[in-house]
Every structure is written in C-alpha cells, then in structure tokens.
Amino acid sequence: MRNIKLTLAYDGSDFSGWQIQPSAATIQGTLASAIGRLTGEKVLPQGSGRTDAGVHALAQVATFVTESSIPAENLGKALNDILPGSIRILEAVEAPAEFHARKSARAKTYRYRMYRGAICPPFLSRYVWHHPYPLNEDAMRQAAGLVVGEYDFASFAAVDPERGQEESSNVRTIFCSSWQRSEDELIYTVRGNGFLHHMVRNLLGTFVLVGKGTLAASDIASILEARNRSAAGATAPANGLYLVGVEY
Amino acid sequence: MRNIKLTLAYDGSDFSGWQIQPSAATIQGTLASAIGRLTGEKVLPQGSGRTDAGVHALAQVATFVTESSIPAENLGKALNDILPGSIRILEAVEAPAEFHARKSARAKTYRYRMYRGAICPPFLSRYVWHHPYPLNEDAMRQAAGLVVGEYDFASFAAVDPERGQEESSNVRTIFCSSWQRSEDELIYTVRGNGFLHHMVRNLLGTFVLVGKGTLAASDIASILEARNRSAAGATAPANGLYLVGVEY
Description:
Helix content of chain A: 10-25%
Strand content of chain A: 25-35%
Largest interface: A-B, 20 and 20 residues
Radius of gyration of chain A: 19 Å
Shape of chain A: globular
Largest sheet of chain A: 10 strands, mixed
CATH topology of the largest domain in chain A: Alpha-Beta Plaits
Oligomer: homodimer
Number of domains of chain A: 2
Order of helices and strands of chain A: EHEEHEEEHEEEHHE
Number of strands of chain A: 10
C-alpha cells in the first residue's frame, strides 16, 4: 500500500465544487474516476479541504492510498492524459503513510480577484468578481489588517452540515491578510492556519461593505466579537476565489 | 433608421461560432436576441466575418440597423447588462448608412496562441493549443514569412458552403505574418486584407509540420502553387485562435 500525494490546479467554473456528488461533476468525483480507470481500484482522494462550486485552485493537495505499482510520477502524467484540461496534476509523489492532505495541513493561502474596470474582459469573467463601483480601497486595506491574529471567526462562518464534531472550534489564526492593486484588479490574499466554511468569501463581502462606507474599518473588531454570522457582510461570489496553496 | 457599429470581445469556448443557428448558442444569435429585447426589433447583426466554434475575438465588429432612438453609447451599456459575461460590447457608435462591417473591412488581424510548457494551466486550456512536443521554431518563423504577399491561398482554404458567388477568388494579400515567444507561449500573428475559411488554422497546421520537420520551410512556396487543400497541413484546433481586430 502506498500513499500518493497529488498537487493539482483546477478551473472550478464547470464543477459543482470539490466534494463528490451522485449526479454532478465535481473535482473529487472526476479525480476518483480517473484514478479508478488507471489502477482499477475504487478510491476517494482526500483533499486538504473542500472548495465550493466555482472556486478555483492553483495548488490543491489530495492524497489517496493505492496497491498499484505504477510509479507516482507516471501516475501523475497518466492522470493528465485522462482528466479534462480544467484539472491538471502538477505533481504526484509518494508520501509517508501518516501524511494526510487535510489533517497534516499547517497553513493555507487563498486569493480573491476583483476586477475594477468598467468592462470585464470576457476571458476573465469566470475568474474574477466584476465590481466596477466606487470603493474606498484604503479603508478595505485597513479592515483586512484587523483580522490578522487569533480570533473566533464565527461571524464569518457559514453553517456547515458536513463538519465533524472534532472541529467544533471557530478559532483560527490569520497570519497575513492584505490587498494589492494590479492594474484593473484588486487582489486580496490571506494566509492562515485554517478557514471555516465560506470564511474567505464572507470576509470579502464584509471588506466590500467597508469599501462602500456602509461599515467603518474599525467595525471589524465588533463584528468578530459578535460571533454571529448576521453581524458580517454577504458572501462574495465564488468565481473570484482561488486556493493558492497548502503548507505542511 | 440608424446604422449602429458594435465592437465586441468574446470567449468563443461555449458558442457554436458566430453564425446564427436554430438550436445552438452562437454569438450572432445571442447578440440578436439581446438587441431584440432592448429595441423590440428583429435584427440580425452583420459581423466582419464569421468565427468558427471555439474561436475567440478581442475586437470583432458588427453592424445593425435600428429605428430605436436609444443613444448608441447607452445601447452598448444596456447590451452588456443583458449579454452573458462571455460577450462584451467594447464600443457602440453610430456609423454612416453605407458602413458595412464585412464589406467595408480593409484588413484584419488574427492571433494564434500555442502553449509549449509540459503542463497547460487549467485557466489557459480554453484559450491556447497545448502543444508540448519539440518544434523547430526558427523553421516556423521562416515559413511564416513566406506567406507575406499576394497569393492564391486555395491550398489553405476549406470548402465554404456559405460562400457567395461574388467571392470566388482565393487571392488574398498578407501584410505581416510572424511568430513571437512570450514565456511558455508561442504566438502567431497575421494581418491581411482578408482570410478564406479556416485559412489561419490551416496555415498553423502547416507551420507545425514545418516545426516538426515533416516539411521544409521552403515547401510553403510549392504548397501555395499547388492550389490544392491536400497539399497543406491539417486544421489547427479552434481554441487557440483570436480575431484581434478589423481595420476600415
């Protein structure tokens, strides 16, 4: 038995998220059937976490156990021959038996792309949130900085029916949280030891309320204290969000 | 009656080409129904030319005649509110009555993007031809230069059932034809006074045979002289092709 670690990128636009579903195209399901075609085994690769429908990944990590003797590197190449072009295996390596894509993760980085120009190029419409309306970007930068540290993020967490008992805490540590401008794009990057369901998109929706002046940047502190989802802003669209990488 | 000139960009991936079809999503059909919703008129916008299924446009030009009094600029903005994000109106202006998107065109520029890296990023797979195999790029550059000038391009023309009697000549003038490298992409740009059906993709398929060494760059001259489609290479995939712009 070998434990195979895959690093993969995907365009989430045409998938109903990571998690396998009986009658919808998902990343996990597509990957599982490609692995099944190669090894003849019925396996369910475990990701570092689920991504929602429409969310992309630059370097998601997933593991699966196999009795196949195909060298890991060849497995990766063969998977790319079978998978649709919207999912690419960037690396396939053999990992120690105790390595687990989710449980072993120590930090994750997400990115969110907003397009600020008047007309969003059609080639970007699947990959950014088009928001051409006025925003106070300085206030948004200030608000982003206020979530750095260890906090209870309940105000930014969607109810997650899939969540296990062992994960009952909403406390997470955010190491970096910042905005940067790149021509017509306003890009948010956040790195933390873990993220609750919809957390990055809920942070985004709240930062946009700060940008609009509906909230002040300093309101972030009281929203965190409230530990109540209704205190924060709406969930931003999925298509601007990218899982950038997972650290172990 | 006003003659409206639209400049539009589109991601052709999810469309069955430009030309309206009874039971498939096309650019022309999608545009026609959006215009119909705004003006209440049944119009068929005329493009500078058709693009095939999967082919993209950075600046296609189309015209239509309307009795609507909506200012052109507002019409463009209102169309963007109705159209899918994969089609964007970049400009809408009133044009002289005699202006015709196809007949008035004096030159067109196309671009073709090849991705040469081993693994094509999933965010590019709709937008490039992934060709990671060895190619002699110098020979391809030389071959590209040999189609500059006025030639009969019958060897590079697909049979076009839609073609009118008035367009019976296969003679076209190519002003520029060149390759450039941009990191992992090899990009071909061609500007000419007109293009036959599939001509750019057939040139591409032939240049790739030169790159592989199946043909010599100097064979381009005899392929042109043959005036026979079977003398040239296969038609390259549609998804790497872009209509860059139309000159009047």
